[in-house]
Structure formats: C-alpha cells, structure tokens
Amino acid sequence: MGLEFDGALLRIRVTAEPPGLRVEGEVDLNNLAAFTESLTEAVKRMPGDVHLDLAELSFIDLAGLRVIADTATALCDGRNLVLAPVAPHVHHLIKMIGWDATPGLRLAGEEVS
After folding, report:
1. Burial of 12 (0-12, 13-18, 19+ CB in 10 A)
2. 77 phi and psi angles, rounded to 5 deg
3. Cα–chain center distance at 29
4. pLDDT tens, residue by residue, 20-56
5. DSSP for residue 102
6. Alpha-carbon distance 81 to 43, whole Å?
C-alpha cells in the first residue's frame, strides 16, 4: 500500500511541510490496518519528527488512538509524533484518556515535558 490511502471513509495524504500525514474522515476497525500501515511507513521513511494533521478527522476509535500512542512510544533518538492540528474532539479524547503524557507524543501547542 504505502503512505497514502483512499477509502470510503478514510483518506490519508503525505504532507511535505511539515513532514507527515494528513488524516481525513474516520479511523475505525474497517480501515485500521490501512491507517496503521501508513503511519508505520511514515515513521520508517521520514527522518526527524513525524507530524499528523488530524484537523479533518471526524472519528477515531480507541484502537486508532492506541496505534498513535504505540507508534509514539516506539520512536527513538529524540523523535516525536506531533499531532497538529488536531480536531477539538480528538484532542479532548486524548487528554481525557491520559495519553497526552505518552512518551514521544506531542499535541499541538503543548510544551514537551
């Protein structure tokens, strides 16, 4: 598959500046494998921080959020998974679960601790 994906409810596109992915639509069990593969490939291919633009993400289930958290945790060498911009409901959900403190994960506008 690679980095980009076009499905009935999910679209993933590469962004050049900042380097990363734009995720639009819904992430759920039906397209979780495609989301996981795109994010995994982005981390492998892109040096430095990987940015996820989640501004147009209308829905993400717990499994999708787990992929984000696990990917961030697996990063090394000072790299981060940066979520920016983030749809307000997704931002709220990440903070409510407590995954905003996940090592290697940065939310837009928040200081790295």
Report:
1. buried
2. 60, 35
3. 16
4. 999 999 999 999 999 999 999 999 999 999 999 999 9
5. -
6. 9
| Element spanning 36, H or E | helix 32-45
Q: Give dist(CA 23, CA 68) in Å, integer.
A: 12
Are the beta carbons of 100 and 107 closer than 8 angstroms?
A: yes
79-90 per-position pLDDT tens digit = 999 999 999 999
Q: How far apart are CA 35 and CA 5, in angstroms?
A: 8
Cβ partners under 8 Å of residue 66, min gap 6:
none
Full set of structural domains in the chain with CATH:
5-107 (3.30.750.24)
Sign of CA dihedral 58, 59, 65, 67: negative
Q: How far apart are CA 109 and CA 3, in angstroms?
A: 26
